[in-house]
Amino acid sequence: MDELQTYKTPAQLAEDARRASHDATLAAWNVAAEARTTGQHAARVARDAASDAGDIASDAATTGRVYARNAAVAASEKFNEKFGQLRRRAHDLRTNSASYVANQPVRAVAWAMAGGAALMAVLVATRPRRY
Fold it and tell me: Which residues cross the membrane (predicted)?
């Protein structure tokens, strides 16, 4: 063999193995610490995102309730307005009809008979025929 080539004793090999094991253990601890820090940061970011999402959902629900309430109020006001108009028109029609009957009783009876005859004609024309 070559005289320059050196051989390690079993004790030296054991010491090299211990050193390599120690270095590997330190490297594993460092990787674990970095992973722990990264995991904690990710958890913090996820908590913040979940909190923000909850705030946004709460705001959206509140806004939806406000819009729904405003729409209900507007619909109620519109209904009351239209119902008031209808009530006034019915009152005017009733008043005008009573006035017409009082001033033109013969014509009123004639119109009533014509309307009844027309209604009867429609009913007879639309009823099912039995043969």
Answer: 108-126
pTM value > 0.85:
no
Tokens in use for 53?
A: 């999402």
Residue whose C-alpha is closest to residue 112's, from 90, 91, 97, 93:
97
**CB of 26 within 8 A of CB of 19?**
no
Which token pair is 115? 């309307």
Evaluate if residue 131 carries a pLDDT over 70. Answer: no
109 token code pair: 């009876």
Q: What are phi and psi of 76, to 5 degrees?
A: -65, -45
The H-or-E segment that residue 56 falls in is: helix 10-103
Q: What is the pLDDT of residues 35-48, one digit of tens each?
A: 999 999 999 999 99
User: What is the C-alpha separation between 79 and 87, in angstroms, rounded?
Assistant: 12
Tell me if 32 sits within 8 A of 40, measured CB to CB: no
**Whole-angstrom Cα distance, residue 104 to residue 5?**
141
The length of the chain is: 131
Instruction: Give the orientation angle of helix 105-126 with respect to helix 10-103, to 10 degrees.
Output: 130
Q: For residues 29 and 21, is the Cβ–Cβ distance under 8 A?
A: no
